[in-house]
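Project outcomes to date are best conveyed with an example. Our students and postdoctoral researchers have been running inverse folding experiments weekly, and each run begins with a structure described purely in tokens. The record below, which covers 151 residues, was selected by the lab manager from last quarter's runs and is presented without edits.
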């Protein structure tokens, strides 16, 4: 497990950002060298939302761009899927991950969100995901099954 310090995962973090740029969910799957505060995660979500909006308008054509799909760095890769409602599903991974595999994961993450968060009568739209145990359980199962890791 992550808390034991010997957990390794090809996924580093998962973020879900609402259409207004607010962080409604995050899960770290590896230990960071620098511990981030809750405020830091909120800032990351806001900055990414702004960058996404800007890149959507930077296309050299008259049509609007789809925004950031992937972002690469030497030590990680970021993938983003935006739903038709504007909710963004983001994962950070090892830099050498297969794009098809991660895009499939994002698709299944979106399905879990639709089935276990949006259909939960106690969930308030656009608010942080707290009391959606089935979402958390099924997300852990998805990660374990797709990436052969134990959470």
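After processing, the design step wrote out the following sequence:
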């Amino acid at each position: 497990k992550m808390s034991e310090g010997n957990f390794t995962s090809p996924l580093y973090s998962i973020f879900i950002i609402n259409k207004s740029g607010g962080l409604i969910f995050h899960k770290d799957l590896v230990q960071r060298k620098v511990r981030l505060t809750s405020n830091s995660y909120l800032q990351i979500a806001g900055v990414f939302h702004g960058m996404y909006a800007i890149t959507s308008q930077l296309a050299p054509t008259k049509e609007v761009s789809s925004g950031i799909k992937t972002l690469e760095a030497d030590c990680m890769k970021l993938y983003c899927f935006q739903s038709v409602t504007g909710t963004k599903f983001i994962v950070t991974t090892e830099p050498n991950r297969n794009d098809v595999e991660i895009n499939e994961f994002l698709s299944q993450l979106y399905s879990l969100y639709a089935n276990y968060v949006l259909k939960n009568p106690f969930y308030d739209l656009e608010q942080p995901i707290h009391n959606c145990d089935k979402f958390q359980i099924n997300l852990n199962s998805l990660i374990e099954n797709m990436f052969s890791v134990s959470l």
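The radius of gyration is 15 Å. Residues 1-6 have pLDDT under 50 and may be disordered. The training component of this project remains on track.
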